[in-house]
């Protein structure tokens, strides 16, 4: 499968500060790819280099097979992007803003413009408010309009920076469903986000950056492999502990009333369940323990992402940029 995004040793320095340090990305066509990192990790700088908005200090970038930023005119007509919040003319309606954006870019047919604007406004749920001035839009509505602008040319590749910022849970789910639908129709989605749960639900692969360096790049399913432990709920905890203690392999890690944690050490969950039931232990629940993406991030970087803090910082940054 061909790569729609490929970087080799991508580096960006600002004086003595290394914002991005030798990042190698490989995003296959058709992927839903999550790009995760806390504020200050080099995430947004990387995205801006991918789009030719910032020139790298060192390293190589290819977008859709084209070297960047040298071939920006060949690559970008096939890329839809929303970076650091969308910027619009505030006193003009959403529909007019989309028309201006479409006119400014290459490859947008004037004959099909009105129809394409109708389609994207419907896709992001703004078709009933498109005549209102953008200055009356909420933050979430502006995010939706920014996504609509990114979709105008039916891009092969979508590069999105925090696309669900400002949306309520229902809006987040709508955008997630839309991105999945677009991906199933052939669009590759590259999603830069600090929302770990969102990436976990949406993306098939993910990269994690920390202090400018890439610390992981795997299929999400591989990042979330089982821990080898199971959690058991039973009304017979003392008998269950005796059974586990007599087995060759599994060990009891924790016991709190009727809730037990057992390390399997090679035994399957089904086999352990069978041993317990055969010994007369009622098993109300036996759950294979898996990490979530936040657990993985914490293990790799040694820090936990404070989503509320980062959202506030992102809003301040957007306000500073108008």
Summarize the structure.
This protein is an alpha/beta fold and about 325 residues long. The protein contains twelve helices and 15 strands. The protein starts with a strand and ends with a helix.
Description:
- With 322 residues, this protein is of the alpha/beta class.
- It has helices at 43-50, 72-75, 94-104, 110-123, 139-151, 169-184, 196-202, 220-223, 237-246, 269-278, 293-301, 307-320; strands at 3-14, 17-23, 26-28, 32-36, 58-63, 66-68, 79-82, 157-161, 188-193, 205-210, 213-219, 229-233, 251-256, 259-263, 285-288.
- The strands form three sheets. The protein has a six-stranded mixed beta sheet, sandwiched between helices.
- Helix 3 (94-104) packs across helix 4 (110-123).
- 37% of the residues are buried.
Helix content: 25-40%
Strand portion: 25-35%
Order of helices and strands: EEEEHEEHEHHHEHEHEEHEHEEHEHH
Q: Give, in spatial order, the strands making up the sheet with the most strands.
A: 7-8-9-4-10-11
Number of strands: 15
Main beta-sheet annotation: 6 strands, mixed
Low-confidence stretches: 307-322
